[in-house]
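so my prof wants the structure for this chain in the C-alpha coordinates format not the other one, which i didnt know existed until like an hour ago. anyway here's the sequence
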Amino acid sequence: MPIDAAQALAAEPRTGEISWTTKDVQLYHLGLGAGTPATDPDELRYTLESRLHVLPSFATVAGNGSPGVISGLSMPGIEVDLARVLHGGQSLRLHRPIPTQGIATSTGKIAAIYDKGKAAVLVMRTEVADTDGPLWTNDAQIFVRGEGGWGGDRGPSTRLEPPTGAPDRVVERPIREDQALLYRLSGDWNPLHADPEFAKVAGFDRPILHGLCTYGMTLKAVVDTLLDGDVTRVRGYDTRFAGVVFPGETLRIRMWRRGGTEVRVAVSAVERDDAPVLADTIVEHS
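here's what i got, hopefully its the right format
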Protein backbone atom coordinates (compact mmCIF):
# COMPACT_ATOMS: atom_id res chain seq x y z
CA MET A 1 0.00 0.00 0.00
CA PRO A 2 1.40 3.46 -0.87
CA ILE A 3 0.99 4.64 2.74
CA ASP A 4 2.33 2.39 5.50
CA ALA A 5 0.93 4.19 8.54
CA ALA A 6 2.81 2.10 11.10
CA GLN A 7 6.15 2.66 9.39
CA ALA A 8 5.57 6.38 8.91
CA LEU A 9 4.55 6.99 12.53
CA ALA A 10 7.43 4.91 13.89
CA ALA A 11 10.09 6.60 11.77
CA GLU A 12 12.80 8.58 13.53
CA PRO A 13 12.36 12.35 13.30
CA ARG A 14 14.49 14.11 10.71
CA THR A 15 16.70 16.84 12.11
CA GLY A 16 18.73 19.39 10.19
CA GLU A 17 20.07 22.89 10.31
CA ILE A 18 18.23 25.72 8.59
CA SER A 19 19.24 29.33 8.14
CA TRP A 20 17.76 32.48 6.68
CA THR A 21 18.77 36.06 5.99
CA THR A 22 16.99 39.37 5.69
CA LYS A 23 16.91 38.79 1.91
CA ASP A 24 14.89 35.58 2.41
CA VAL A 25 12.41 37.45 4.61
CA GLN A 26 12.08 40.30 2.12
CA LEU A 27 11.57 37.90 -0.80
CA TYR A 28 8.86 36.07 1.15
CA HIS A 29 7.05 39.31 1.95
CA LEU A 30 7.23 40.42 -1.70
CA GLY A 31 5.77 37.05 -2.69
CA LEU A 32 2.76 37.91 -0.52
CA GLY A 33 2.27 41.23 -2.31
CA ALA A 34 4.00 43.45 0.24
CA GLY A 35 5.49 46.73 -0.94
CA THR A 36 2.43 48.41 -2.43
CA PRO A 37 2.67 51.39 -2.28
CA ALA A 38 6.45 51.00 -2.32
CA THR A 39 7.12 54.06 -0.14
CA ASP A 40 4.35 53.47 2.40
CA PRO A 41 6.01 53.38 5.87
CA ASP A 42 3.77 50.45 6.86
CA GLU A 43 4.93 48.46 3.82
CA LEU A 44 8.59 49.35 4.36
CA ARG A 45 8.46 47.27 7.54
CA TYR A 46 8.18 44.28 5.23
CA THR A 47 10.61 45.34 2.49
CA LEU A 48 13.40 47.57 3.88
CA GLU A 49 16.15 45.83 5.83
CA SER A 50 16.69 48.73 8.24
CA ARG A 51 13.03 48.56 9.37
CA LEU A 52 12.38 44.88 8.79
CA HIS A 53 10.16 42.73 10.94
CA VAL A 54 9.12 39.14 10.18
CA LEU A 55 5.55 38.10 9.47
CA PRO A 56 5.12 34.90 11.54
CA SER A 57 3.91 32.86 8.56
CA PHE A 58 7.49 33.11 7.26
CA ALA A 59 7.96 30.04 9.46
CA THR A 60 6.40 27.95 6.67
CA VAL A 61 9.31 28.70 4.32
CA ALA A 62 12.22 29.57 6.64
CA GLY A 63 15.41 27.87 5.55
CA ASN A 64 14.26 27.93 1.92
CA GLY A 65 13.68 24.19 2.07
CA SER A 66 10.68 22.08 1.19
CA PRO A 67 7.54 23.11 3.05
CA GLY A 68 5.73 20.58 5.24
CA VAL A 69 3.73 19.12 2.37
CA ILE A 70 6.74 18.17 0.24
CA SER A 71 8.93 17.00 3.13
CA GLY A 72 6.05 14.91 4.49
CA LEU A 73 5.80 13.00 1.21
CA SER A 74 9.46 11.96 1.47
CA MET A 75 9.10 10.36 4.91
CA PRO A 76 9.48 6.56 5.35
CA GLY A 77 6.26 4.68 4.59
CA ILE A 78 4.90 7.45 2.33
CA GLU A 79 4.90 6.83 -1.43
CA VAL A 80 2.18 8.77 -3.22
CA ASP A 81 1.62 10.56 -6.53
CA LEU A 82 2.22 14.29 -6.10
CA ALA A 83 -0.68 14.99 -8.51
CA ARG A 84 -3.08 13.49 -5.92
CA VAL A 85 -1.84 15.68 -3.08
CA LEU A 86 -3.50 18.81 -1.74
CA HIS A 87 -2.57 20.94 1.23
CA GLY A 88 -5.53 20.47 3.58
CA GLY A 89 -4.66 22.85 6.40
CA GLN A 90 -1.93 24.56 8.36
CA SER A 91 -1.36 25.27 12.05
CA LEU A 92 1.39 27.48 13.47
CA ARG A 93 2.41 28.17 17.08
CA LEU A 94 4.91 30.94 17.81
CA HIS A 95 7.05 30.54 20.90
CA ARG A 96 8.69 33.95 20.40
CA PRO A 97 9.15 36.45 17.56
CA ILE A 98 11.12 35.22 14.55
CA PRO A 99 14.45 37.05 14.10
CA THR A 100 15.18 38.72 10.76
CA GLN A 101 18.10 36.35 10.25
CA GLY A 102 19.13 33.22 12.03
CA ILE A 103 20.42 29.67 12.23
CA ALA A 104 18.22 27.02 13.83
CA THR A 105 17.59 23.30 14.14
CA SER A 106 14.50 21.90 12.44
CA THR A 107 12.99 18.57 13.50
CA GLY A 108 10.26 17.00 11.39
CA LYS A 109 8.09 13.90 11.76
CA ILE A 110 4.73 12.45 10.77
CA ALA A 111 2.68 13.19 13.89
CA ALA A 112 -0.57 11.53 12.77
CA ILE A 113 -2.21 9.71 9.86
CA TYR A 114 -5.99 9.69 9.45
CA ASP A 115 -8.20 7.53 7.23
CA LYS A 116 -10.95 9.64 5.68
CA GLY A 117 -12.31 6.83 3.53
CA LYS A 118 -11.61 8.15 0.05
CA ALA A 119 -8.48 9.96 1.17
CA ALA A 120 -5.72 9.93 3.76
CA VAL A 121 -4.63 12.92 5.84
CA LEU A 122 -1.02 13.13 7.01
CA VAL A 123 0.01 15.58 9.74
CA MET A 124 3.61 16.67 9.20
CA ARG A 125 4.95 18.37 12.33
CA THR A 126 8.02 20.59 12.23
CA GLU A 127 9.58 22.03 15.39
CA VAL A 128 12.26 24.69 15.13
CA ALA A 129 14.61 25.98 17.83
CA ASP A 130 17.80 28.01 18.01
CA THR A 131 20.39 28.40 20.75
CA ASP A 132 17.96 30.54 22.75
CA GLY A 133 15.22 27.88 22.73
CA PRO A 134 12.06 26.98 20.77
CA LEU A 135 10.97 29.34 17.98
CA TRP A 136 7.90 27.78 16.38
CA THR A 137 5.90 24.60 15.73
CA ASN A 138 4.27 23.99 12.33
CA ASP A 139 1.68 21.34 11.50
CA ALA A 140 0.89 20.78 7.82
CA GLN A 141 -2.21 18.70 7.08
CA ILE A 142 -1.58 16.81 3.83
CA PHE A 143 -4.67 15.52 1.96
CA VAL A 144 -3.93 12.56 -0.35
CA ARG A 145 -6.80 11.62 -2.65
CA GLY A 146 -7.50 7.94 -3.18
CA GLU A 147 -5.28 6.70 -0.35
CA GLY A 148 -7.82 6.06 2.43
CA GLY A 149 -9.99 3.07 3.22
CA TRP A 150 -7.66 0.88 5.27
CA GLY A 151 -9.79 1.11 8.42
CA GLY A 152 -7.61 3.57 10.33
CA ASP A 153 -8.57 6.33 12.75
CA ARG A 154 -10.66 9.03 11.05
CA GLY A 155 -9.17 11.69 13.30
CA PRO A 156 -10.76 14.72 14.93
CA SER A 157 -13.16 17.02 13.13
CA THR A 158 -11.61 20.43 12.49
CA ARG A 159 -14.77 22.13 11.24
CA LEU A 160 -15.87 25.16 13.26
CA GLU A 161 -19.16 26.99 13.36
CA PRO A 162 -18.94 29.96 10.95
CA PRO A 163 -18.52 33.39 12.55
CA THR A 164 -21.80 35.21 13.17
CA GLY A 165 -22.67 38.87 12.85
CA ALA A 166 -21.15 41.53 10.66
CA PRO A 167 -17.35 41.33 10.36
CA ASP A 168 -15.27 43.98 12.11
CA ARG A 169 -13.23 44.52 9.00
CA VAL A 170 -13.37 43.50 5.34
CA VAL A 171 -10.43 44.03 3.00
CA GLU A 172 -9.71 42.95 -0.56
CA ARG A 173 -6.28 41.94 -1.78
CA PRO A 174 -5.53 41.51 -5.52
CA ILE A 175 -3.33 38.63 -6.66
CA ARG A 176 -0.91 39.41 -9.47
CA GLU A 177 -0.73 37.13 -12.51
CA ASP A 178 2.89 36.35 -11.64
CA GLN A 179 2.43 36.00 -7.91
CA ALA A 180 2.75 32.20 -7.76
CA LEU A 181 5.95 32.43 -9.83
CA LEU A 182 7.43 34.89 -7.34
CA TYR A 183 6.19 33.09 -4.23
CA ARG A 184 7.68 29.75 -5.32
CA LEU A 185 11.17 31.31 -5.14
CA SER A 186 10.82 31.03 -1.35
CA GLY A 187 11.13 27.25 -1.66
CA ASP A 188 7.90 25.59 -2.83
CA TRP A 189 8.76 24.27 -6.28
CA ASN A 190 5.62 22.17 -6.77
CA PRO A 191 4.92 22.43 -10.54
CA LEU A 192 1.19 22.67 -9.76
CA HIS A 193 1.78 26.39 -9.24
CA ALA A 194 3.68 27.08 -12.47
CA ASP A 195 3.29 24.34 -15.10
CA PRO A 196 -0.03 24.37 -17.02
CA GLU A 197 0.38 20.75 -18.16
CA PHE A 198 1.02 19.48 -14.63
CA ALA A 199 -1.95 21.50 -13.37
CA LYS A 200 -4.20 19.74 -15.92
CA VAL A 201 -2.97 16.33 -14.76
CA ALA A 202 -3.87 17.39 -11.20
CA GLY A 203 -7.38 18.37 -12.36
CA PHE A 204 -7.08 22.15 -12.73
CA ASP A 205 -7.55 24.29 -15.83
CA ARG A 206 -4.41 26.26 -15.04
CA PRO A 207 -1.81 26.63 -12.27
CA ILE A 208 -3.17 27.62 -8.87
CA LEU A 209 -1.74 29.87 -6.19
CA HIS A 210 0.03 28.21 -3.27
CA GLY A 211 -2.30 27.77 -0.31
CA LEU A 212 0.50 29.03 1.92
CA CYS A 213 0.69 32.22 -0.12
CA THR A 214 -2.98 32.89 0.61
CA TYR A 215 -2.23 31.93 4.22
CA GLY A 216 0.51 34.54 4.45
CA MET A 217 -1.49 37.24 2.66
CA THR A 218 -4.35 36.70 5.09
CA LEU A 219 -2.15 36.95 8.18
CA LYS A 220 -0.60 40.15 6.83
CA ALA A 221 -4.08 41.63 6.38
CA VAL A 222 -5.03 40.74 9.97
CA VAL A 223 -1.78 42.14 11.41
CA ASP A 224 -2.01 45.34 9.38
CA THR A 225 -5.66 46.08 10.13
CA LEU A 226 -6.49 44.65 13.56
CA LEU A 227 -3.13 44.18 15.33
CA ASP A 228 -1.68 47.66 14.77
CA GLY A 229 0.93 46.27 12.40
CA ASP A 230 2.66 44.48 15.29
CA VAL A 231 3.80 41.00 14.17
CA THR A 232 5.00 40.14 17.68
CA ARG A 233 1.40 39.98 18.91
CA VAL A 234 0.67 36.82 16.91
CA ARG A 235 0.69 33.68 19.06
CA GLY A 236 -0.93 31.12 16.77
CA TYR A 237 -2.53 30.80 13.36
CA ASP A 238 -4.71 27.95 12.09
CA THR A 239 -6.58 27.47 8.83
CA ARG A 240 -8.27 24.92 6.59
CA PHE A 241 -7.76 25.26 2.85
CA ALA A 242 -11.34 25.21 1.59
CA GLY A 243 -10.76 26.03 -2.07
CA VAL A 244 -8.23 27.10 -4.66
CA VAL A 245 -7.15 30.55 -5.79
CA PHE A 246 -6.02 31.41 -9.30
CA PRO A 247 -3.46 34.13 -10.04
CA GLY A 248 -5.23 37.27 -11.20
CA GLU A 249 -8.14 36.89 -8.77
CA THR A 250 -8.98 38.99 -5.72
CA LEU A 251 -9.16 37.78 -2.13
CA ARG A 252 -11.95 39.07 0.08
CA ILE A 253 -10.83 38.77 3.71
CA ARG A 254 -13.47 39.10 6.44
CA MET A 255 -12.35 39.47 10.07
CA TRP A 256 -14.21 39.17 13.37
CA ARG A 257 -12.68 40.07 16.74
CA ARG A 258 -13.39 37.47 19.45
CA GLY A 259 -12.70 37.98 23.14
CA GLY A 260 -9.69 40.26 22.86
CA THR A 261 -7.25 37.43 22.07
CA GLU A 262 -8.61 35.95 18.87
CA VAL A 263 -9.57 36.96 15.34
CA ARG A 264 -11.80 34.68 13.26
CA VAL A 265 -11.26 34.99 9.53
CA ALA A 266 -13.00 33.85 6.35
CA VAL A 267 -11.41 34.27 2.91
CA SER A 268 -13.12 33.98 -0.47
CA ALA A 269 -12.45 34.60 -4.17
CA VAL A 270 -14.34 37.71 -5.29
CA GLU A 271 -14.53 36.84 -8.98
CA ARG A 272 -16.10 33.43 -8.35
CA ASP A 273 -19.09 34.62 -6.32
CA ASP A 274 -17.15 34.57 -3.05
CA ALA A 275 -16.12 30.93 -3.41
CA PRO A 276 -14.55 29.85 -0.09
CA VAL A 277 -10.75 29.79 0.00
CA LEU A 278 -9.77 29.67 3.70
CA ALA A 279 -12.17 28.44 6.39
CA ASP A 280 -12.00 27.62 10.11
CA THR A 281 -9.33 30.29 10.34
CA ILE A 282 -8.16 31.67 13.68
CA VAL A 283 -5.40 34.12 14.56
CA GLU A 284 -4.51 33.99 18.27
CA HIS A 285 -2.86 37.13 19.61
CA SER A 286 -1.82 39.06 22.71
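also thought this was worth mentioning. Residues 90 and 266 are 15 Å apart (CA to CA).
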